[in-house]
Amino acid sequence: MSKTNFETPPTASVGATMRDDLTVRNVSRIGPVLWIGFYTSMLNLFTLTLFRFWGRTHFRRRLWSDTSVGGEPLEYTGRGLELFVGFVIAIFTLMLPFVGIVFAIQFFIGPETVYLAAVPLLLYAFLFFILGVAIFLARRYHLSRTRLRGIRFAQTGSALGYGVAMFGYLVLSIITLGWYGPAARIKLSRKLWEKAYFGSEQFSFTDTAEATAEPVYKSFAFAWFGTIIVYAIWAGWFFISMGESLTETATAPDLELIGKLYLSFIPMVILIGIFVSWHEAVMIRRIVKSLKVAGADFSSNMKTVDIIELAITNTLLVIFTLGFGFMAAQMRVWKRIANRIALDGDVDFARIQQTTEAAPKQGEGLADGLDIISNF
Amino acid sequence: MSSEPTLSGRYFDGESGNAQPVEIVLYNDHFLIRSSKKEFRWEYRHTKVAAQPDTETRLSNRHFPDAVLVLPSTGASALKKAAPEIFDGRRERRRITALISGLVIGAGIVTAAVFIGVPAASGPLARATPKDFEMRIGSNLAAQISILYKPCGEADALEILQPVLNSMAEKGDVGFPIEFRFVKSRGPNAFALPGGQVMATSGLLDAIGDDQEAFFAVMAHELGHVRARDGMQAVYRNAGLGITLDIITGGSGAAQQLVLLGGQLNQLRHTRIQEAAADETAIEIMTAMNLDPSALSRAFEAISASAPDEAQSENNEKKYPSWLRSHPNTEKRIENARQHQKSGGKPPLTSEQWQTIVRTCHAAQKGLADKETTQSE
């Protein structure tokens, strides 16, 4: 058994089996990723944002290849065309029918129809269910296009089942004013990871002593009450200082009001971010510490200060680059999470066989259509 | 026969996660990868650089989908001499150039379709739409709008007004029965929905006061929208342009917002054209009703003067270029309407009847004003 250091630089030696070295490391630099974000944004302008599928692929290739386990980099084998085709399929199978139904209700069903109010509610409920399906399908694609040492990852399980579970947990979270949220997040993570594979090796999600020792609900209470307090202060300030401008009869947008509103979001978001960051760090550790694959236990020493620092600097990065720094911001999150992960155990890579799971042909079109896509 | 020295590297065969130390023997058009157990033949033309971190080069081959050959930098240099085509980025650059060209052309076609084709088709489509279908859409939209803008006014006021509006619609050959209602709102405004649904706000009555001709000029303008089936055209335009752009665009950052902004500016251009055309129809209807068409200019003046955010509106009018506005420049519209001044005949309503109209939403309007005053205090 060996325990790797969090900050040990990667080593790579030709011919070695790397039996003991499981150091997780990301060495991404901001410059190249900013460049990918910049040219993706520029080309998006001239391609009605259709270049985003290829830009996202370039970004992932870079990020994956900068991330190594035991000195062997991850590989992203997805293609922009696959994302594009997935998106086109999602347009015709889901988005256009959905928009068509919404339009049909709006225009063709008479206002006197009793069920009129219920139909949009059902549609939006369906949308939340689909959200879970989209997340699952996107993840299945990601893992199927991720390779380490020539071995593919895979996600099995049912997308519909995940969608139903996510919808149910969402309802419970709403009923409990968010307090079911942390439990739901852990359950959903378990649902995904227990059906995930690295080649022939199945991941497990175990409530280890280290994982359950994380103060999930204490940190959630801090985040919940903190957010309420910040939001109440912001809302009070907003209505007191701008009440007179908020007449229902204004016919032209009040630019000063809009400007103040946006500016006021910055301290509010930062303060809420500070309250939430402890919980975020706890949740990352809680989930990572539950994972195990091929005899290796995962752990994470993600800290609250990491989240605060990333939240503030990434917000500024995105604002000052007019959005094209978004990929760089995501890279910084990935990098921090990766460099805070450690693997402990002996992995016999020779024993790990290629996955027999068939990889999906297209990817994450649904998630893209629903605008919930993450670049990684 | 080997043409180059033998290289060493490590090989992942894509079957197990084990790294196998291998020897690579180079030939003219391929190389052999030899492990202690097996030998693999990789053609140069099917081999490409998968990644090239600082210290090593990772190669993949189309016929060995999950296999990876890792060469140290010295080995990679030797391979580059023997098979420069593997490292030649021209193939990849050509692919990227073709991809970007294809996407730009595709985006150009979609842009032309939604920015030019859809607006151009919206007029013929609106005219081809069965009228009872349009009326149904209009009454649905009116019902939805009523959630935000509550109707106001007594039945007797509407009974007085309806025959005049019917007469205007008939003289203007509007083509739809007019269904009119007043709605509660401080802002002086009127609007036409598809299928002959016309609404005027309580704020409009307040702004116009005793000048019934000005009110009917505004109504004539709205009837212009009904006749041109502008509401229906907007439905087709929004469906074609708004939804297409909304569905196609994605990602994040300024690029997506700029594309959507382009769509909105295009919409504004069309509404300005429709507003100008509705002004012309208003002049035509007012003339046919033997009323003074320049009453439209008085309506614009009254609306500008009484808008609750009057100063803001004036500033906006001066501050923003015409292409950022939904309506043509008000001063120009006033000037245009004034050019058609002629002494009108007798107003369609007696002053007593008109006072019934003016009073009909007075309570609602006063309630809104009181609410606003309370908020200001």
Word description of this protein:
The complex is a heterodimer of chains A (376) and B (377). With 376 residues, chain A is α+β, with helices and mostly antiparallel strands. Helices cover 58% and strands 10% of the residues of chain A. Chain A has helices spanning 30-46, 52-65, 80-108, 118-144, 159-175, 181-193, 209-212, 216-242, 255-288, 304-320, 326-339, 365-369; strands at 24-26, 67-69, 72-76, 146-148, 151-155, 196-198, 201-202, 204-205, 291-293, 296-300, 341-344. A 7-stranded antiparallel sheet of chain A has the order 1-2-3-4-5-6-7. A 4-stranded antiparallel sheet of chain A has the order 8-9-10-11. Chain A is globular, with a radius of gyration of 23 Å. Chain B is built from 14 helices and 11 strands. In chain B, the strands form 2 sheets. Chain B has a 7-stranded antiparallel sheet, covered by helices on one side. In chain B, strands 8-9-11-10 form a 4-stranded mixed sheet, with helices on both faces. Chain B has 377 residues and is α+β, with helices and mostly antiparallel strands. The model of chain B has no long low-confidence stretch (mean pLDDT 84). The longest helix of chain B has 39 residues, at 90-128. Chain B is rod-shaped. Classes of the chains: A alpha+beta (376), B alpha+beta (377). At the A-B interface, helix 1, helix 2, strand 3 and helix 3 of A face strand 1, strand 7, helix 3, helix 4 and helix 8 of B. Chain A: The chain crosses the membrane at residues 33-54, 83-109, 115-138, 159-180, 221-240, 261-279, 307-329.
